[in-house]
Design goal:
The structure holds two protein chains of two kinds. In chain A, 35% of the residues lie in helices and 26% in strands. In chain A, strands 6-7-8-3-9-10 form a six-stranded mixed sheet, sandwiched between helices. The longest helix of chain A is centred in the C-terminal third of the chain and has 18 residues. Chain A folds into two domains: 140 residues, Rossmann fold; 64 residues, no CATH class. By secondary structure, chain B is an all-alpha fold. Chain B has one domain: MetI-like fold. Chain B is 86% helix and 0% strand. Chain B has eleven helices and no strands. In chain B, helix 2 packs across helix 10, helix 5 crosses helix 6 and helix 9 packs antiparallel against helix 10. The two termini of chain B are 14 Å apart. The chains are: A alpha/beta, B mainly alpha.
């Protein structure tokens, strides 16, 4: 079942087209990555999908409803965790509920139960500065989940983490996605990360940015370490590299 | 224990330099390099302070009241103006140059005018303090509002937050460190501003006391009250630091983590 659909999205800044005629979709519980070199328009596309910017052409559909230019419908997690330093973790996480009109006490109660599930037990009343990078990212992900309507956009969620933390976060992320069934579209520069985590990969390239390729990773998750050394992995990688380097 | 020891060693250079300054002052006095009537010795100043303590405290009460009301009005105006300027860019363009111009007018030049317009009571003093304390707080708040990472604003907007919610949850807390930096400067300006305005016309306050002892050529008392003003200003700045620590507990956590 398709939950999010982008139809013919085009956007220009000062007369210069950044992305052109983007068509993509996301199914329920699916993990889809968006790969592309820097400056190709990935973040612009995310800003449009989340309703922060309006496209010049095209529309964004969420569960059949046109949400083009409407913010607050799809949750959006950016590269930095963006936890408000002056709020305790529980208040950061429950903020989407408070914004939607819930009382602070009620909102805290609602999210409190999720802390254990997300491996954040004991962090509820700490400030963000008291947590490690990985734990902060988990808290940001929980906040994204709380505000999601079954769909989340993640802009390079693991890029700021060190290799070891990133690897453990990948495992944690796949495990969480298995439990919560939230459709996520995430931006990454890392081909390995995209193959390792995604069900499908969109490759964005060119100027203006267009979808250069759509690759389905037909391998059961969680993917074993041996997969990285398999022929299939090499083939997926080749397809991605070909799409990334293909001329418009 | 180690942290406390480190805190003491951090303060050591300041204590030593002040001690050297005091010793130099004493040396200049006992060797009569500078005559007594021009530079009274630290001992003479201490004695004068002790003898006039009741009177100084009585005048200080008046000065501090003026400084307090003036500072309060200055902060309120700064908050309103800075917030309005942040919200509507046209207001920023309209008021910012005026704000800068007001700061180029010397305090000493406005004080007699205020006395002329408002009389010798508390009003001109409070007004002068409000004018001098307004600017650092307003500029601090404006800088603070503008320094907020726009990704936080994007995040809030993606959650469907209103302008008000963004202001309360992101901009205002983000501006707090800048606000307290401005407030620290304003607090010292408040006492000095009140004293200057008393100097130029009034019946009570540390400024009035200073003019009286000056006319009596009692420079030891003059020095005593100057040092007293310095101590008051430092204590008020300390109070601002304390308020900052209480209002922003997360900064304490961040510093602890950095250590």
């Amino acid at each position: 079942m398709i939950v999010l659909k982008a139809e013919n999205i085009t956007k220009a800044y000062d007369g210069v087209k950044v992305i052109h005629n983007i068509n993509m979709h996301l199914k329920k519980g699916e993990i889809v990555s968006l790969l592309g070199v820097s400056g190709v328009g990935k973040t612009t596309l995310f800003h449009i999908l989340s309703g922060l910017f309006e496209p010049d052409e095209g529309r964004v559909m969420l569960n059949g409803e046109d949400i083009t230019g409407k913010s607050g419908k799809i949750s959006y997690m950016q590269q930095k965790d963006l936890l408000l330093p002056h709020k305790k973790i529980i208040d950061n996480v429950s903020m989407p509920c408070v914004i939607k009109g819930m009382k602070k006490k009620e909102a805290r109660k609602k999210v409190e139960l999720l802390f254990r599930q997300f491996g954040l037990e004991g962090c509820e009343y700490k400030y963000p500065s008291q947590l490690s990078g990985g734990m902060r990212q988990r808290a940001a992900f929980l906040r994204t989940y709380v505000s999601s309507n079954g769909v989340a956009l993640l802009d390079e969620p693991f890029s700021a983490l060190d290799t070891l933390t990133k690897s453990s976060m990948h495992k944690w992320y796949l495990n969480m996605m298995d439990q919560i069934e939230m459709g996520t579209l995430f931006i990454t520069h890392d081909i390995h990360e995209a193959i390792h985590l995604s069900d499908r990969i969109y490759v964005l390239g060119g100027k203006p940015g267009i979808i250069k390729g759509e690759i389905c990773i037909e391998q059961e998750k969680p993917r074993k370490e041996e997969f990285e050394f398999s022929k299939e992995y090499a083939e997926y990688k080749r397809q991605i590299v070909d799409a990334l380097t293909a001329q418009a | 224990m180690r942290r406390r020891f480190q805190s003491i060693t951090n303060k050591l250079p300041a204590i030593i330099s002040m001690g050297i300054l005091l010793a130099l002052w004493h040396f200049l006095c006992i060797t009569k390099v500078v005559p007594d009537f021009m530079l009274p010795s630290p001992k003479a100043v201490a004695i004068a302070f002790y003898e006039d303590l009741d009177l100084i405290l009585e005048h200080a009460g008046v000065t501090l009241t003026e400084a307090f009301y003036g500072l309060l009005i200055g902060i309120l105006f700064a908050f309103v103006i800075a917030t309005v300027m942040e919200r509507w860019n046209v207001m920023y363009q309209a008021f910012y140059p005026i704000m800068i111009v007001t700061q180029t007018i010397p305090t000493i030049a406005i004080a007699p005018l205020l006395v002329l317009w408002m009389g010798f009571g508390m009003e001109p003093k409070v007004t002068l303090v409000a004018i001098t304390t307004f600017f650092p707080v307003a500029v601090g708040l404006l800088d603070g509002y503008k320094s907020v990472d726009c990704d936080y604003i994007h995040l809030m907007r993606s959650m469907g937050a209103s302008r008000y919610r963004i202001f309360v949850n992101v901009k205002l807390p983000g501006a707090l460190p800048h606000f307290f930096s401005g407030l620290k400067v304003s607090t010292s300006y408040a006492v000095v501003g009140a004293v200057i305005s008393e100097w130029l016309g009034g019946f009570e306050g540390l400024g009035v006391y200073m003019t009286r002892v000056k006319k009596a050529y009692a420079f030891d008392r003059m020095f005593a009250v100057i040092l007293f003003i310095v101590v008051i200003s430092l204590l008020l700045m300390l109070l601002v630091n304390l308020m900052k620590t209480i209002c922003m507990p997360w900064i304490r956590m961040e510093k602890r983590r950095e250590k």
